[in-house]
Amino acid sequence: MTNAALVLEDGRVFRGEAYGATGVSLGEVVFSTAMTGYQETLTDPSYHRQIVVQTAPQIGNTGWNDEDDESTKIWVAGYVVRDPARTPSNWRSKRGLDEELANQGVVGIAGLDTRTLTRHIREQGAMRAGVFSGAELTDDASMVEQVKASAQMVGANLAVDVTTDKPYVVEAIGEKKFTVAALDLGIKSNTPRMMAARGIEVHVLPLTSTFEDILATSPDGLFLSNGPGDPATQDHAIALTREALGRKLPLFGICFGNQILGRAVGRGTYKMRYGHRGINIPVIDVTTGKVAITSQNHGFALEGTPGEEFSSEFGRAVLSHYCPNDGTVEGVRLLDAPAFSVQYHPEAAAGPHDAAPLFDDFVTMMNEAR
User: Could you tell me what reaction this enzyme catalyses (predicted)?
Assistant: First the structure.
């Protein structure tokens, strides 16, 4: 057994044993309340430069397969679990979770009290941290200083790290009904699949694309994906969004895309105390009062009051959804232009699926625009 430590910037140190690769990983420590779907969590680009703590005590039961990745690699900076499975058991499993973490160089830690750690993050807020093991495990003071010297999440432009290098197309399943240009801010693999199942041909475009590149796809709509980092850094994506709104091109955004649309219509964003991460988070639609259980992963949010109507240069808009746990704004809808967004994941795998019909709403919006 190799010793390991999770070191927080406030000086708190949690001891455990190495899990996955050994070495050092630095990032923002956050917790996820999901009880399943760890493979999708690990490969979600929105977790870039974050050390993820799983609140569910036992992780790794179903091993690692070659079908459920949400991107081409594991994006988390580090991984923290309490009780890793000794032996995976699932008919699709190809190898153990610890083996895959080691294969991809992800430094993790196991065997620590994740309940105490989660309560600490809830009370003190998400903060910079480091996982140290092997030769990198030194004295506490040195490790704390290393953590304090690492980059902050506020002001971090991370979408540029995770966006696709070149455009690619996901073909519609069955008859092609629409073409959508999807701006890749950290898109998950299931998103184009969900649209393709509705007859949408999806052109996934790099973040650096121009509006002319978007128009070159002859789009019926523009999609803004999820992604990591501070939305205040995304001047280019915000400018593209404003161009689309000005042309009344139907627009749908999720997660990071919700923050981009919000900023495009004049709302501010702020860093949350510890964010929302998990697959069991309630959201209320202010128009219908309907509650959806959602998958979320965000540490920033839009400013405003749920249900608030406001004016923008693109017409009236409303803050359309909120989380009843803390009142966080979870959606924006323009009332005079074909655009809406939500802070959660309607494409969620391993679920829940309450919000999947939002893709149908996007289809309806594109139909009406025609």
Answer: hydrogencarbonate + L-glutamine + 2 ATP + H2O = carbamoyl phosphate + L-glutamate + 2 ADP + phosphate + 2 H(+); L-glutamine + H2O = L-glutamate + NH4(+)
Is 99 within a domain? yes
- Containing domain of residue 69, as a range? 3-149
Per-residue pLDDT of the chain (370 residues; tens, 9 = 90+): 899 999 999 999 999 999 999 999 999 999 999 999 999 999 999 999 999 999 999 999 999 999 999 999 999 999 999 999 999 999 999 999 999 999 999 999 999 999 999 999 999 999 999 999 999 999 999 999 999 999 999 999 999 999 999 999 999 999 999 999 999 999 999 999 999 999 999 999 999 999 999 999 999 999 999 999 999 999 999 999 999 999 999 999 999 999 999 999 999 999 999 999 999 999 999 999 999 999 999 999 999 999 999 999 999 999 999 999 999 999 999 999 999 999 999 988 777 889 899 999 999 999 999 8
Is residue 211 part of an annotated ligand binding site?
Answer: no
The catalytically annotated residue of 9, 120, 201, 255 is 255
Residues 34 and 8 in one domain: yes
25 close to 78: Cβ distance less than 8 angstroms: yes
104 and 164 part of one domain: no
Our CA dihedral for 306, 312, 317, 318, rounded to 10 degrees, sits at 0
Q: Which of 48, 203, 298, 345 is catalytic?
A: 345
Catalytic residue at 345? yes
The response to whether 256 counts as a known ligand-binding position is: yes
CATH number of 217's domain? 3.40.50.880
Residue 154 lies in a domain: no
Domain count, the chain: 2
